[in-house]
């Protein structure tokens, strides 16, 4: 939702998806964007309907796409190919000139020369290099990372720096760390999240 919010606020967004193909990322963004624009959850285009076409109201969707292209002119770029190093990330930043970069997610990035070092060290090195790109281009680079087992098992606590999976160095290189905790849904309701 942070990237969708950036789009709504007329920011040029570069979204690096190392896990999901661009058509899936686009479908999810269209679902979230339609909910944010309408302000109503029941006025969204469901993710699966966008991916499969089943149950999709084509006229409404075309109207939505025209509305989006008219309202949000800064650009939203999804890169889903293998970004194997910071030089490639820097080239993407240079090419697209984003206001903000979202990198989903650090735990599966292996980086070109990082293959010969321990996983935690490689992840830490890439977090450090991401910060250097952010500082060089004076843009925020928002990097997603997962919680380790202790952070994932305690459903009542928001994960903190000690619960970041694979490398404490992620937190050492971050200017801000935002923990997201999912709340168990009550019967008949959907899960909700809380930021810390």
Number of helices: 8
Structural class computed from helices and strand pairing: alpha/beta
Order of strands in the sheet with the most strands?
2-1-3-4
Please provide the ordered H/E string of secondary-structure elements: HEHHHEHEHEHHEE
How helical, in percent, are the residues?
40-55%
Got a strand count? 6
Q: Please describe the biggest sheet, giving its number of strands, its sense, and whether it closes into a barrel.
A: 4 strands, parallel
Low-confidence stretches: none
Shape: globular
User: What is the CA–CA distance across the termini?
Assistant: 15 Å
Cα Rg:
18 Å
Written description of the protein model:
The chain has about 200 residues and is of the alpha/beta class. It contains eight helices and six strands, in the order αβαααβαβαβααββ. It is globular, with a radius of gyration of 18 Å.
For this entry, give a set of tags.
6 strands, single chain, 8 helices, four-stranded parallel beta sheet, 196 residues, globular, two-stranded antiparallel ribbon, alpha/beta
């Amino acid at each position: 939702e942070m990237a969708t919010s950036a789009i709504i606020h007329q920011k040029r967004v570069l979204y690096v998806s190392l896990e999901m193909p661009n058509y899936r990322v686009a479908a999810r963004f269209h679902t979230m964007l339609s909910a944010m624009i309408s302000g109503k959850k029941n006025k969204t285009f469901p993710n699966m309907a966008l991916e499969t076409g089943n149950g999709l109201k084509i006229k409404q969707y075309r109207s939505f796409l025209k509305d989006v292209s008219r309202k949000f002119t800064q650009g939203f770029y999804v890169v889903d190919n293998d970004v194997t190093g910071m030089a490639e990330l820097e080239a993407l930043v240079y090419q697209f000139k984003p206001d903000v970069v979202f990198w989903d997610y650090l735990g599966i990035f292996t980086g070109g020369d990082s293959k010969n070092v321990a996983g935690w060290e490689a992840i830490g090195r890439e977090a450090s290099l991401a910060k250097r790109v952010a500082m060089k281009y004076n843009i925020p680079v928002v990097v997603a990372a997962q919680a380790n087992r202790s952070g994932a098992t305690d459903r009542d606590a928001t994960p903190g720096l000690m619960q970041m999976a694979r490398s404490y160095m992620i937190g050492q290189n971050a200017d801000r760390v935002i923990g997201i905790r999912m709340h168990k849904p009550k019967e008949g309701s959907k899960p909700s999240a809380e930021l810390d």
